[in-house]
Amino acid sequence: MSPSHKPILLVEDDHVDAMTVKRAMKDIQIENPLHIVFNGEDALEYLRDPNNTYPYFILLDLNMPKMTGIELLRIMKKDRELKRIPVVILTSSREQQDKVDCFELGVSGFILKPVEYEEFVDILRTIKLYWKLNEPPG
Amino acid sequence: MTDFSKQKNHSNLDNLYESILKNMSEGIIVQDEKGDITFVNQATVNLLHYEPVELIGKNWRIVIPKNWHSLMENIDADRKKGKVSRYEIELVRKDKKRIPVLVSGSPQFHEGRFTGTVAVFTDMTEYKKAQKNQERWTARADLIWRVGQRVTSNLKLEQLLNETVSSIRDTFDYYGVQLFLYDEKNNKLVLQAIAGAYEKVFPEKMSIDLGKGLIGRAGHKRKTQVSGDVSKNPHYIKKTFEDTHSELAVAISSKDGLIGVLDLQSAEYHAFDDSDVSSMESLCTQIASAIENARLYEKAQKEIADRKLAEQQTKESERKYRVLFNNIADPVLIFDKENHKILDWNKSFKRIYGYSKNELQNMTPYDLHPEEELERVKRQIDVRNVDYGFSYTHITKYGRKIIVEIQSEEITYQGNPAWISSIRNITERKLLENQLKDFAYIVSHDLKAPLRAISQLASWLAEDYADVLDDNGREQLELLLGRVKRMDRLIIGILQYSRAGRKSKRLEKIDLQKLVPEVIEILSPPENIKIHIKSSLPTIYSEKIKIEQIFQNLISNAIKYNDKSQGKIEIGCHEEPSHWRFSITDNGPGIEERYYEKIFKIFQTLEARDRRESTGVGLSVVKNILDSYGEKIWVESKVGQWTSFYFTYKKQLEDNIHTLNG
How far apart are CA A34 and CA A37, in angstroms? Predict the structure, then answer.
């Protein structure tokens, strides 16, 4: 993925799910640094810290303690800077309403967490291919 | 009177007297002191039809009826004392007919000795007749008056008829009096009232064809029939009872037509003369109006009684419905079809909504809905719509929101078109449905997260520690992954099941002839299994996704469990009056009867899951869908040979749609 120096932010409270992402990135050789936070509040703190670079994109879980993914999205969309960061939802929620809300808040993708690891690797590979071609704003 | 015996020696005088005696119109009978007849004149012969020789020398008793004998003996005794007597008596003619006479009897004495009587008599027949006529006229006037009285005093038809005939019979002393009424339907005259000789002879309700006999002719021609000697009348119908000699039949009719016939019979010949005819005719006019009045009265009485009965029945049924209406657990509302004003409501309605009578009378059903729902409600009102199972929100007087389903029918309320709406409060049910939905969500999301973790950790263990693990360790990890997959399918099953019972709002037209082959194609059955649609499939109204699920589950089961080298699956449809009955038959292993019920329960499988991976959700999903539509599913099978799954689906949706409105 390029630019390779830009980090990928993973907002995920489940430790194993975070491990999955980490492992899959390594398996398909995504070299971008992965930064993991455990809920929306931590994510916001990270994004607003001037010492941190804006992530290349955000992988966001919805169901999290303290601040959910949707709540985080709402805040980000009101922020002139943050609203431009691409967000891919990574969730186990099959609720139609969640999907509708997320796309209304301008997410780039909505992915259901698969049970099997191999499937997840395939999904991440597709994201990698997509982002290779994608030209995000500066 | 002349002293006859004193002058008997004068021959000239004898001739003179003889000539007088011969020619005088009064009868003269002379008898001696013993009472034996010694002389009769020509008038006597003419009157009594006896020749003189037949009477001379016979006692007076020969010409006097027995009942007069004792009277005569008394008179005789008086005469012997010299008393002249005048009396009315009857004489017996040779043919036994009695002749009324006025007698003047003078005793004869010779030298102080009683020698006999000279009786001069006048035929009183004509006088008597005239007198009888007079009596009759009086009686008739009286009768007519009495019948007239009945008209005003007695309005009971049967009683009136009976009194009419008995009055006539008593007054005129006719042999028999009958009154027939005309039965228009059968064109017959039916005996209604009878007095006199035939009372015991004529059968009750005896009927005579109109036009037959004297009675029938009188009715048919509406013209009085009279016969002085019925034996000579060609129209007379001979009865077994043979004493009738004269008959008079008078039609009773009004301007509207024939009412009946009054029939009089007499044992005498020529009993009815013109005056009888005219008086009976005028009497019949009165009888006619009396009968008409009585009939009108009875009709009015019957109408009153009918109306009372109808009113009572209406009251009873109204009361019944009122009780039902008030005691139905669901709120029920009646409102005008035109202006939608609320007209009536039951106890349950009042209890749940809390409005007072005055408030309700000024409300329409729209007032029960929240603002945002009004447009939808107005669209539905008065429209027969294919939506059903639709729910609405109602707000009670105290602001409580309830969720309701409404079923409406058109009725007539107090003569005007109206809607009756039965309202089902489904607030609780919706709450439960939502809880189930939440539960399903929790299951899918929260149970899946750890499952996913287990799955991934296990697969990493297998991968990262491949060198360290022996065969046993690898096998155990594989089993672990298998169970995780099964758990995942079960969770998906729960979700499917919970969604199956949820009905969507809108039904669509589904052509099964197209849908079923599509389902089969998606299932892509193996080569050795042939699927055959043996009858043409109908078009139904339902939710496409649900119907797909039904066929998909049933057909895939038939494929999955088939154990024959040449699998055969047949899909059929049978038409019943209100339903289609679908069948899916396979030549698989069959199902034992004791499992017929169990197979439809969630998570029930008949084989160990390790032998054949199955969640046991499929049939329960099918049943849940069909249950939600009020349809049935059942199974028939022969173990080792075949299994048939049957399910019904309503044919005409229109029949099952309830008009939905506010």
Answer: 10
What fold does the segment set B505-656 form as a domain? Heat Shock Protein 90 (3.30.565)
**Assigned domain for A3 exists:** no
Q: Minimal Cα–Cα distance from A116 to chain B, Å?
A: 6
End-to-end Cα spacing for chain B:
121
- Contacts of B343 by beta carbon, 8 Å cutoff, 6+ apart: B334, B335, B336, B413, B414, B418
Which chain A residues are Cβ-neighbours of B455 within 8 angstroms? 115-117
Cβ distance A19 to B456 less than 8 Å, yes or no, reads: yes
Closest-CA distance, B321 to chain A, in angstroms, reads 48
Q: How far is Cα B397 from Cα B400, in angstroms, rounded to an integer?
A: 7
Taking only Cα atoms into account, the Rg of chain B, rounded to an integer number of angstroms, comes to 57
Q: CA B147, CA B165: separation in Å to the nearest integer? A: 10
Is B413 buried (19+), middle (13-18) or exposed (0-12) by CB count in 10 A? middle
Q: Which of A93, A116, A117 sits opposite B445 (nearest CB)?
A: A93
Place of tokens 């936070």: A37
Distance between CA B449 and CA B447 in Å, rounded?
6
Angstroms from A50 CA to nearest CA on chain B: 34
Angle subtended at Cα B193 by Cα B190 and Cα B197, rounded to the nearest 5 degrees:
110
DSSP B340-376: --EEEE-HHHHHHH---HHHHHT--GGGGS-GGGHHH
Q: Structure tokens of B189?
A: 């005259």
* pTM for the full predicted model: 0.42
The answer to whether the CB of B224 falls within 8 A of the CB of B246 is: no
Segment B328-340, tens digit of pLDDT: 888 998 989 888 8
The CATH class of the B5-123 domain is: alpha beta
B453-495 pLDDT tens trace: 888 888 888 888 988 888 888 888 888 888 888 888 888 877 7
Listed as ranges, residues in chain B with pLDDT below 50 are 1-8, 240, 384-388, 654-662
CATH classification of the domain holding A107? 3.40.50.2300
User: B484 contacts in A (CB within 8 Å)?
Assistant: 115
Distant-in-sequence, close-in-space partners of B242: CB < 8 Å, separation ≥ 6: none
Predicted pLDDT at B386: 36
Question: How many CA atoms lie less than 13 Å away from B84 in the CB half-sphere?
Answer: 8
Round to whole Å and give the CA distance between B91 and B100.
6
Sign of torsion, CA B450 B454 B460 B464? positive
Nearest of B279, B262, B323 to residue B142 by alpha carbon: B279
Residue A117 and residue B459: Cβ atoms within 8 Å?
Answer: yes
Nearest residue of B to residue A16 by CA position? B453
Q: Is residue A98 part of a domain?
A: yes
Residues of A in contact with B453 (CB under 8 A): 14, 16-17
User: Cα separation of B207 and B189, whole Å?
Assistant: 5
- Domain B130-300, CATH 3.30.450.40 — does that match? yes
Q: Is residue A62 part of a domain?
A: yes
3-state helix, strand, coil in chain A (%, to 5): 45, 15, 40
